[in-house]
Amino acid sequence: MERTYGVVLVGCGHIGQSHIEEIYFRDGIRIVAVVDFNPNTAQLFARKYGAAEYNTDYHPYLDRNDVDIFIAATYANSHLQILRDCIQAGKHLLCEKPMTEANEADAEEFYRLAKAAKSKVLIAHILRHNSTYQRVREMIREGAIGDVRLIRMIQNHHIMNPARYGRLMEDCPPFVDCGVHYIDVARWFTGMKVVSVGGIGSRVGNLVPQGHFDHGILNMKLENGASVIYEAGWAESIAAQNLKEFIGDKGRIRIVLQADRNEDREEGALIAWYSSDTGEYHTINSPSIYKNMWQQLLCLIDMIEGKSEGSPTLDDAYRAFRIALLGWHACEQNNVLPVPEEFA
Ligand SMILES: NC(=O)c1ccc[n+]([C@@H]2O[C@H](COP(=O)([O-])OP(=O)(O)OC[C@H]3O[C@@H](n4cnc5c(N)ncnc54)[C@H](O)[C@@H]3O)[C@@H](O)[C@H]2O)c1
Predict the structure, then answer these.
(1) Contacts of 41 (CB under 8 A, 6+ apart)
(2) Is the CB–ligand 1 distance for residue 169 below 6 Å?
(3) Which of 50, 83, 268, 289 has the fewest C-beta atoms lying within 10 Å of its C-beta?
(4) Are 195 and 157 a contacting pair, CB within 8 Å?
(5) How many CA within 13 A on the CB side of residue 319?
(6) What are the domain boundaries of the chain?
């Protein structure tokens, strides 16, 4: 890192906490301010993480010379305005996914503005910075499972905090909000395009109005004919479930998180690899940080210092979002939609 960076965190909720608790004590980082609509939350964060100031509005920090980076950990429907403001003020932005609320016009504007800007913009696809995911990608690219034929990913949440999840679902259904991570994983791990997406949506709980979805299953085809299934739902009656499995013609790999294991939890995440060539099962200990917020911020700093084009690139994040939005429409139509080449 070439110098000290002044940071403003906007949004002191669930993911805002994950961001700040991993960065506030680092050399080269100065937390200038924490911002939240709720002044009590912002004040608490300022005390806890040593921010010089707190506020309910981020605008006063846009023209401050001691601020370099904004972190937008706010609702998706505020991301586009924060981006516009940051670009106009010449500030860099680490923006939580999804880029915007579920709306093609906003997504397109976000992408176009960010692409043309002098400011650096990184979309927070945190799995890109998780060393277990990085290692599994390498294994798949090196042929550990042969030709990828099937990817099965489930991420269901049993809701304990209806207000939070209800608010998130005003902007995006769960399979769009979380789906952007896993559509990106499928493209990133395989290097392949997603050529079509189908979907089936459900309303399991009562947090979303009639006609909206709190659960969905997307089924995608990769360019080699492989299938990708992604399921996500948030409801009081859904059981939490997490499956990440990658199957090829020569074996399969499962990522088993620390929290999902009964034994050997202290070892961290597991990579469970079965090779059908040898008939052997391998268990690889992977002591990674699930949400490595520090590596993610360093990725943006590398972009600012001209050392990286970011991970994911804006193009990869945009494509994942557009495919997720197509998946949402596929759910609405109970149909399979082709993915246009520009988003594949
Ligand atoms: N990368 C991940 O793993 C991950 C996980 C959870 C959420 N997220 C994303 O992070 C974003 C926030 O989700 P969350 O779960 O932290 O929500 P949350 O409800 O826990 O927190 C959001 C906070 O932001 C504040 N806020 C919202 N808009 C604001 C604005 N314009 N100005 C000031 N304060 C504002 C709210 O008051 C709230 O305290 C969403 O886009 C969500 O998809 C990402």
Answers:
(1) 12, 13
(2) no
(3) 50
(4) no
(5) 22
(6) 5-125, 128-292+322-338
**How many whole angstroms from 286 Cα to the centroid of ligand 1?**
29
Determine the pLDDT at residue 1: 83
Please count the other Cβ atoms lying within 10 Å of the Cβ belonging to residue 243: 15
Which of 4-18, 117-131, 252-266 is predicted with the least confidence, judged by mean pLDDT? 252-266
Tell me if 13 CB under 6 Å of ligand 1.
yes
Residue pLDDT, tens place only, 307-329 = 999 999 999 999 999 999 999 99
> How many Å lie between the centroid of ligand 1 and the Cα of residue 332?
26
Q: Tell me the average pLDDT across 328-344.
A: 95
CB of residue 190 inside a 6 A radius of ligand 1: no
Which residue matches tokens 């980082």? 29
What is the whole-number distance in angstroms between the Cα of residue 13 and the centre of ligand 1? 6
Structure tokens at 330: 């596929």
pTM for this prediction: 0.96
Fold classified for 128-292+322-338: Dihydrodipicolinate Reductase; domain 2 (3.30.360)
Q: What CATH number should be reported for the domain whose range is 5-125?
A: 3.40.50.720
78 lines ligand 1 (CB under 6 A): yes
Residue 312 token pair = 């994911």
